[in-house]
Amino acid sequence: MRKIVLFIPLVVFLLLGSLLYFQLGKDTQYMPSALVGKKLPDFALVSLQNDQVYTQSDLPKTAYLVNFWGTWCPACHLEHPFLMQLAKSGVPIVGINYKDQQALAVQWLAQKGDPYQWVLMDERGHFGVDMGVTGAPETFVVDSAGVVVYRLQGVISAENWPSIKGYMK
Amino acid sequence: MRFFRGVLLSFVMCFSWSALAQEQMTFSSALHKTRYQSLVAELRCPKCQNQNLADSSSAIAIDLREQVHQMIEQGKTDQEIIDYMVARYGSFVLYRPLHSSATFLLWYGPFILLGLGFLAFVGVVMTNRKRRGGGL
């Protein structure tokens, strides 16, 4: 009986050790999105290219990406070439021009190419707040049932695309 | 003396930084202002994570402060504003965690450990007493 008691510190050490070990290397910046598992919030946003207003019912019926971007955002410059590649391979992307100026955004798409099915303007960032966006770039995966299944804070790239692609159903 | 003044100045600057992050806002009553201040102190900035909304100068914190200000002026209750933030950014935005099954250990773990420690203490005292012959 007394011998078992002597082993308690070892057991506690092993438990704590394994607990802490599995927390190592975790992304401390990762923040789960409150939107995952829900439909997109209602919106009525003006298109960047024409003056048409788009709402919920205009969204694609297949799985697609929602990409928040702005010309003021340095990481969006990095991300853009890969978005062009995705668009070429047939991935539908809805662009949200986040807290930007229309003229600058139009110029950017004319110069660098337009990977978006359509681009909506969120000049004041209100739709961004509804989506729980913290900055740009940020990308959401919406599945064919219209439910948000994944959120990526930061640049979408060749490295993380394979795992994101898995959510596109 | 000049050096001392420099040190003092940088000290004051450090503490006034959070005040710089606040924009000019007008409130219709002193109560609204107090509620605003306590709300932005208790909501966590979703971008910077280790700062509350009041202290952060990131763009999203500015937006959310404005949102809190608007909602207070619209007559929303504190709970409604907190629910609004949680619906968008998750319970993560609360500096004071909710009482739920996920945060049970966070809230009550220390008391459970204290209780276990007390039980162990009593146990040790009892066995020692028994070994000495069962009396005082």
How many H/I helical runs of chain B?
5
* CATH topology description of chain A: Glutaredoxin
CATH topology of the largest domain in chain B: Helicase, Ruva Protein, domain 3
CATH class of the largest domain in chain B, please? Answer: Mainly Alpha
- Flag low-confidence runs of chain B: none
Q: How much of the polypeptide of chain A forms β-strand, as a percent range?
A: 15-25%
**Tally of discrete structural domains of chain B:** 2
- Distance linking N and C termini of chain B: 68 Å
Q: Biggest interface: chains and residue counts? A: A-B, 16 and 15 residues
User: CATH superfamily name of chain A?
Assistant: Glutaredoxin
Label the overall shape of chain B.
Answer: flat
* Strand tally of chain A: 7
Secondary-structure-derived class of chain A: alpha/beta
Our Rg estimate of chain A from Cα atoms comes to 21 Å
The tally of strands of chain B reads 0
Structure characterization notes:
With 169 residues, chain A is α/β, with parallel strands linked by helices. Chain A has one domain: Glutaredoxin, CATH 3.40.30.10. In chain A, strands 5-4-3-6-7 form a 5-stranded mixed sheet. A two-stranded antiparallel ribbon of chain A has the order 1-2. Chain A has helices at residues 2-6, 8-23, 74-88, 102-112, 126-131, 161-165, and strands at 44-46, 53-55, 64-69, 93-98, 118-122, 138-142, 148-153. Chain B has 136 residues and is mostly helical. Chain B has helices at residues 2-20, 30-42, 59-73, 78-89, 104-131. The mean pLDDT of chain B is 84. The A-B interface holds A 29, 31-35, 99, 125, 128-135 and B 46-47, 49, 58-60, 63-64, 67, 86-90, 92.
